[in-house]
């Protein structure tokens, strides 16, 4: 059998690959208006970065990371030897840790500087059990803002994400925005203890995994998919009843900004997110129908301690990431399809082989002038050249035959109206030559104008 793509990965075929490029361009345009600039970081980092940044006890780090290892180091390990910490590498399971590492390493937010607003788009890797909407390699678009702790940063980041979903075609009414606050190092420890004590009281009703979680990271139990655990955790203490004054004020201010922007949201005190770096604001955007259990199309929050965790000076941060593939599923659920990738302004058809060289040069001249087009490369009959032009959805077909050529003419058919006319070949070529001298990116005239309609 022919070799297939690895489990949990997907090829983006041309229509979709073009849509992904469009998706990123719309993101860059919208987020650029909010001051976000692109950053590119490596697809793999030292494993230590993710362990320290995301948290050793998270599923992402403890179960789902792909290790990247050079052939020589692999051999050393297989031989029972050990390798240096800096040679322990992992494919990035998310983008935040790498971006924060880059900000610290390159001192992008010197003391007193304005915040660094950064955006990225690209593949992330998690060794999860693949299912619809859950892949092992998936694409994220994300933003990170480092150097400001004001709630306005959180609010504008969330607003910007919701604007993006609408701009790309995901109906806002099909989404639900959940918000919560995770508190900070001042108020969270006491809250965590309260949850642990509650879980101890209900140990008999909780699954084994949750009882283990109660020891290491009790808040993870809010994410347990077991219906029995979910029912028990409904009665657990709520973080929003345990926030310190500063965290409460921050949370209230974020919500006030969202209210002011007219953005609907649901407060969900059980929203804890799967990564350990969050402080204060956390949020998630879900699609309400047609997506099954993998319905989170984006999420994020504030991480005011992460820069210190990876060895930098205190630098507050806020960010989020959206899942591209889940956005595609949301678009499908809303009945939207990709626009076809290919564009074909014209097709040059040859009546016989004697005009092939002339046709070849006309096609080149058209492309140099900014038009997209094709000719036959397989010696098809005139009839099947027209069929091909139809298939490519060509707007116009220029037919070159020995008789027309002898008179310096070319026959042009508008494929929509079926109107035909004879255009002067020399005049057409002179116009095309003028157009091709124009700088790239100018708006070419319509094909009708080129053929002197
Ligand atoms: P996350 O919630 O783990 O957050 O991932 C963000 C989004 O990526 C999810 O909402 C989902 O749409 C998509 N996603 C996650 N895992 C998969 C998967 N296996 N297959 C397909 N899509 C997936 C983060 O990654 C944080 N770094 C977000 C952040 C940025 N927080 C602060 N700054």
TrEMBL record:
Residues 1-339 form the Aminoacyl-transfer RNA synthetases class-II family profile domain. It is found in: Cytoplasm. L-histidine binds at residues 94-96, 126, 140, 144, 273, 277-278. One of its GO terms (biological process) is histidyl-tRNA aminoacylation. Pfam families: HGTP_anticodon, tRNA-synt_His. It is an enzyme of class 6 (ligase). GO terms for cellular component: cytoplasm. Transmembrane segments: none annotated. Keywords: Aminoacyl-tRNA synthetase, ATP-binding, Cytoplasm, Ligase, Nucleotide-binding, Protein biosynthesis. PROSITE patterns: AA_TRNA_LIGASE_II. Its EC number is 6.1.1.21. It catalyses: tRNA(His) + L-histidine + ATP = L-histidyl-tRNA(His) + AMP + diphosphate + H(+). Its main location: cytoplasm. One of its GO terms (molecular function) is ATP binding. Coiled coil: none annotated. InterPro entries: aa-tRNA-synth_II, aa-tRNA-synth_II/BPL/LPL, Anticodon-bd, Anticodon-bd_dom_sf, His-tRNA-ligase, HisRS-like_core, HisRS/HisZ, HisRS_anticodon. Gene3D superfamilies: Anticodon-binding domain (3.40.50.800), Bira Bifunctional Protein, Domain 2 (3.30.930.10). The keyword DNA damage does not apply. Belongs to the class-II aminoacyl-tRNA synthetase family. Homodimer. This is Histidine--tRNA ligase. It comes from Gordonibacter pamelaeae. The gene is hisS.
């Amino acid at each position: 059998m022919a070799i297939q793509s690895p489990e949990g990965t997907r090829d983006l075929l041309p229509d979709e690959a073009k849509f992904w490029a469009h998706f990123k361009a719309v993101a860059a345009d919208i987020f650029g208006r909010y001051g976000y600039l692109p950053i590119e970081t490596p697809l793999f980092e030292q494993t230590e970065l993710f362990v320290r940044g995301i948290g050793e006890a998270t599923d992402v780090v403890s179960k789902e990371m792909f290790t990247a290892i050079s052939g020589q180091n692999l051999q050393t390990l297989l031989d029972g030897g050990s390798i240096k910490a800096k040679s322990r590498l992992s494919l990035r399971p998310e983008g935040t840790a790498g971006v924060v590492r880059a900000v610290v390493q390159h001192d992008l937010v010197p003391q007193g500087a304005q915040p660094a607003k950064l955006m990225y788009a690209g593949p992330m890797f998690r060794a999860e059990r693949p299912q619809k909407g859950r892949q092992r390699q998936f694409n994220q678009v994300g933003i990170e803002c480092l150097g400001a702790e004001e709630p306005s940063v959180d609010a504008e980041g969330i607003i910007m994400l919701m604007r993006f979903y609408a701009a790309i075609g995901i109906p806002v009414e099909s989404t639900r925005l959940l918000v919560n606050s995770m508190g900070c190092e001042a108020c969270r420890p006491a809250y965590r203890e309260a949850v642990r004590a509650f879980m101890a009281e209900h140990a008999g009703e909780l699954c084994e995994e949750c009882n283990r979680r109660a020891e290491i990271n009790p808040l993870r139990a809010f994410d347990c998919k077991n219906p029995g655990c979910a029912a028990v955790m409904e009665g657990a203490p709520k973080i929003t009843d345990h926030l310190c004054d500063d965290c409460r004020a921050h949370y209230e201010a974020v919500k006030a900004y969202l209210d002011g922007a007219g953005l609907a949201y649901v407060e969900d005190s059980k929203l804890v997110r799967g990564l350990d770096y969050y402080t204060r604001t956390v949020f998630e955007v879900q699609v309400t129908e047609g997506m099954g259990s993998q319905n989170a199309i984006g999420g994020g929050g504030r991480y005011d301690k992460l820069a210190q965790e990876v060895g930098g000076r205190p630098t507050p941060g806020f960010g989020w990431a959206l899942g591209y593939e889940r956005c595609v599923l949301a678009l499908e659920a809303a009945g939207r399809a990709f626009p076809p990738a290919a564009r074909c302004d014209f097709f040059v058809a040859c009546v016989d082989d004697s005009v092939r060289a002339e046709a070849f040069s006309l096609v080149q001249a058209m492309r140099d002038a900014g038009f997209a087009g094709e000719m036959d490369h397989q010696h098809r009959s005139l009839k099947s050249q027209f069929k091909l032009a139809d298939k490519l959805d060509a707007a116009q077909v220029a037919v070159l035959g020995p008789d027309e050529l002898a008179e310096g003419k070319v026959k042009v058919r508008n494929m929509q109206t079926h109107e035909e006319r004879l255009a002067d070949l020399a005049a057409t070529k002179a116009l095309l030559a003028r157009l091709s001298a124009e700088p790239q990116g100018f708006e070419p005239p319509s094909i009708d104008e080129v053929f002197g309609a």
